[in-house]
Design a protein that fits this description.
Layout: H1 2-11, E1 22-37, E2 43-54, E3 76-79, E4 83-90, E5 96-97, E6 99-100, E7 105-107, E8 118-119, E9 124-130, E10 145-151, H2 156-162, E11 165-171, E12 180-190, E13 209-213, E14 231-239, E15 246-250, E16 255-257, E17 260-262, E18 265-267, E19 272-278, E20 287-288, E21 325-331, E22 343-349, H3 353-356, E23 361-369, E24 377-379, E25 390-393, E26 397-405, E27 411-415, E28 419-422, E29 425-427, E30 430-434, E31 438-443, E32 448-454, E33 461-467, E34 481-494, E35 513-522, E36 546-549, E37 553-560, E38 586-593, E39 607-613, H4 620-623, E40 626-632, H5 638-641, E41 647-656, H6 663-669, E42 686-690, E43 701-704, E44 708-715, E45 721-725, E46 742-745, E47 750-756, E48 761-767, E49 778-784
Parallel strand pairs: 1-4, 3-11, 12-14, 23-26, 25-33, 26-30, 34-37, 36-40, 41-44, 43-49
Antiparallel strand pairs: 1-2, 4-9, 5-8, 6-10, 7-9, 10-11, 12-13, 14-19, 15-18, 15-20, 16-17, 21-22, 23-24, 26-31, 27-30, 27-32, 28-29, 28-31, 32-33, 34-35, 37-38, 39-40, 41-42, 44-47, 45-46, 45-48, 48-49
Length: about 800
């Protein structure tokens, strides 16, 4: 059956006939036994529930699918202007649902408004959707189709790990396409989180976590046949845990994503990526997330010489939408462990560029974790503290090409005192991708010695020495001058008002109150009276929300009432002298000139978020010393810039109380006995919170109707984080990590979006991962009428 279907697909890709404007799908939720096959071909079988398509409303005859489809649900297709009617029958033992981020349910058969209405066992529910322009590719997008996930959302973590996930494709038109389409879902299945976790497997294997493609693990997905000289479109989706990052490589091929040339596709939980390539050479090509078993006929024997010839055709160079140069890397291709260093960079530029190229500074940073090294990490093959200073000039632009190797954990690098940019976006950190070079530009705005440092580990760094070189920093004050009085104080903070806090994991959970150090604002430089919110539920763990337009100046008098030295720093604004720590009971005046270079980039929203923080130690941030500065274009009115209704800040992530300066104090003050030596307690006190509130206890955010509202997100933790926003469609962005209803953040990364709500309602936002934790990130925002924008 697979061979026949593949031949048909090679001749032409036939779409579901949908010219009648209404498309009907018959989908059942069936219980199945799914075998995870291992490298040695042994199997571990688990009970799953899966979406399966049937031919008609009798739900008796299944529609055939290729074996590569695995337990992924059927691909649902629609075009703009269609009505999509999906009949879902639940043949499982418990209630499940059908939900997709990209479509709003119009009504169910009873006439009730429905978003993910559950289907009880044995019943059928009809979901009806009207597909509009907002559901398809944007008018400016080069893509003809966009894809998204559908899944059961009765309990998303358990439902998805039970197996209920599939893909939805929405196209601009319903015209047939000759492009071969392949659907690949990367998902880590946590069988302990499944509803069927009590059902034992067919053997006594202890493995319960399975990284899969369409349900297949350890390279056992059946091969995919495609035709020569045919354009192939790959639809990638992903779900998984907090470190579930996939760098997907197709050997022997470059791909295009959003009309830009890439040698690897980066996937995050909740991500959907469409990539295209043209098949140009026959052969078996590996699609993998690992750099490995290359063609051994091209190897170089020991103590011998071989000459390689690499052609550079147009289809590996920059597109019209790329930078003028792309950076790739070469490897041995035969597989290399963490203890070898067989790779290097290749720079591929547009034709003629090398002859007219301006003088550029390129820095290549390859970070890897080692298995035999004493330090366990290296940059460019040597311990970081042995790297020499890199000398650059003020206002010089430095191209920084960065990647990781040997680590599945997300690694992000900040650049103290300077500004990071990529494709018109001003960024907080450089996100280092596994096995794939990513290019950023660093603009030198301040003189001094500045570190490019790993956010997760301050010992992993290299130093940039920035000199004037005859150039002086040029700031022209065109806006207003604001004076703020900010103090650092010690106080107690409760992440949750729920009464079951310490019962989450008895014997492990500290709290419910935690001693913290926090930035607070005062009415005057006497530092006697704090500016407090009228409603205590509006108080946040983070410091006061500061705001400015490009061209403004902010003068801050900072006083440290903490028990140890702290500081106040903001990358790109703070001077070298500002890095001096402020002793206890001392104060200091800091001036921030809001340069154009640190404001919104050409591809950014008109307002972006930059965090300020104490940087005397990496323990300062988990202790509580961080806060937001909103920076807007000079064209944005100051009343919008300073409005806490229009500028919504989400400082989200995992706060590791074990890394706090007050860890020992909080351990002693905890209710009940906490056994920190118990292995099961390892992550119990890594608290997942939004603005300091966990488990949905944050006050409902109020959103004004009919006005531009900026959502600013900052990941304050050490793990990758994906936030799912219900009731919100995000405009297509070329910034990595921004999906149609999700925001993915590397550690200390910030991203901003702007939206406008035209109808009232209350909507949920929450962390989108498929592994459970003792605490969770979630909250509600409500769009209301007649709200003053202040």
């Amino acid at each position: 059956m697979d061979t026949i279907m593949i031949r048909l697909l090679c001749l032409s890709s036939v779409l579901t006939i949908c010219y009648g404007k209404e498309i009907v799908y018959y989908i059942a939720i069936d219980e199945i036994d799914w075998p995870y096959k291992h490298a040695d071909q042994s199997e571990t079988v688990f009970r799953k529930a899966a979406y399966q398509e049937y031919k008609d409303q009798t739900f008796t005859t299944r529609k055939p699918v290729t074996s590569q489809h695995g337990f992924l649900g059927p691909t649902i297709r629609a075009s703009v202007g269609n009505t999509l009617r999906i009949l879902v029958k639940n043949n499982a033992r418990r209630s499940f649902s059908f939900y997709t981020d990209n479509l709003n349910t119009q009504k169910n058969e009873t006439g009730a408004v429905s978003v993910g209405s559950p289907v009880s066992p044995g019943s059928v529910l009809t979901y009806v959707y009207t597909v509009t322009d907002a559901n398809g590719p944007s008018a400016a997008s080069m893509d003809q189709c966009v894809t998204s996930l559908y899944y059961s959302d009765v309990n998303p973590i358990k439902d998805i790990n039970t197996g209920l996930v599939g893909m939805l494709v929405v196209c601009k038109t319903d015209s047939p396409t000759s492009v071969r389409e392949i659907f690949l879902h990367y998902g880590t299945m946590y069988e302990r989180e499944s509803w069927f976790s009590s059902v034992k497997s067919t053997n006594d294997s202890q493995q319960t976590v399975f990284p899969t493609i369409n349900g297949y693990t350890e390279g056992n997905m059946p091969d995919i046949d495609v035709c020569l000289n045919r354009k192939v479109r790959l639809y990638f989706t992903s779900l998984g845990g907090q470190n579930d990052i996939h760098t997907v490589v197709l050997y022997g091929h470059q791909m295009e994503v959003r009309s830009q040339r890439v040698d690897a596709v980066n996937l995050y939980p909740g991500a959907t990526v469409t990539a295209e390539f043209l098949t140009q050479e026959e052969g078996a090509w590996l699609l993998t997330t690992q750099h490995v078993s290359g063609n051994r006929k091209h190897t170089v024997a020991a103590n011998s010489l071989k000459t390689y010839y690499w052609s550079v055709p147009d289809d590996v160079g920059p597109t019209l939408f790329d930078e003028l140069c792309l950076v790739r890397h070469y490897t041995s291709g035969l597989g290399h462990s963490n203890d070898t260093f067989l790779f290097g960079p290749v720079k591929i530029c547009a034709e003629g560029y090398m002859q007219t190229a301006p003088k550029e500074t390129d820095i290549f940073v390859v970070y890897r974790q080692m298995t035999t090294s004493i330090s366990n990490f290296e940059i460019n093959g040597v311990p970081p503290y042995t790297l020499p200073l890199v000398s650059v000039c003020l206002e010089e632009i430095v191209n920084t090409h960065i990647m990781t190797f040997g680590t599945a954990e997300p690694q992000s690098f900040s650049v103290d005192g300077n500004v990071i940019k990529q494709r018109g976006h001003v960024l907080n950190v450089m996100e280092a991708k596994e096995n794939s070079m990513t290019t950023y530009t660093i603009t030198m705005t301040k003189t001094g010695n500045w570190t490019v440092r790993n956010f997760r580990n301050e010992n992993i760094s290299l130093t940039l020495s920035v000199n004037e070189c005859g150039t002086s920093s040029n700031f022209i004050l065109t806006g207003k001058v604001t004076t703020r009085n900010i103090g650092i104080k010690e106080d107690y903070w409760g992440y949750s008002s729920l009464s079951d806090w310490t019962s989450k994991l008895p014997g492990c959970q500290m709290g419910p109150r935690f001693k913290k150090a926090m930035f607070v604002e005062y009415y005057s430089n006497l530092f006697m009276f704090e500016t407090r919110q009228p409603d205590p539920r509006d108080e946040t763990l983070h410091g006061p929300q500061l705001a400015a337009n490009v061209g403004d100046r902010i003068t801050i008098e900072i006083k440290n009432n903490g028990r140890r030295p702290y500081s106040l720093h903001l990358d790109g604004l703070s001077d070298w002298s500002d890095d001096d720590s402020i002793p206890w009971d001392s104060s200091k005046i800091i001036t921030w000139n809001i340069l154009e270079s640190i404001g919104p980039g050409s591809a950014d929203t008109s307002c972006i978020l930059k965090p300020y923080y104490s940087k005397t130690s990496q323990r300062d941030i988990p202790s509580g010393l961080f806060g937001p500065l909103v920076i807007c274009s000079p064209l944005i009115p100051s009343e919008t810039v300073e409005s806490t209704l229009q500028q919504k800040v989400f400082m989200v992530g995992s706060i590791d109380e074990r890394a706090s300066w007050y860890y020992e104090d909080n351990l002693k003050d905890s209710t009940g006995i906490v056994n920190i030596s118990d292995p099961k307690c390892a992550d119990a006190n890594v608290i997942r919170a939004v603005n300091g509130y966990s488990d949905g206890t944050i006050k409902n955010m109020t959103i004004p109707l009919g006005a531009d509202v900026y959502f600013h997100f900052l990941n304050i933790g050490n793990n990758l984080l994906t936030i799912h926003l219900y009731g919100l469609k995000i405009i297509d962005s070329n910034q990595e990590g921004i999906g149609r209803s999700t925001i993915t953040l590397y550690p200390w990364a910030s991203k901003s979006i702007v939206t406008r709500f035209d109808s009232p309602g209350s909507f949920l936002y929450e962390e989108l991962i498929t592994e459970g934790h003792t605490t969770r990130i979630s909250g509600l925002y409500t769009v209301v009428t007649n709200t003053k924008l202040s």
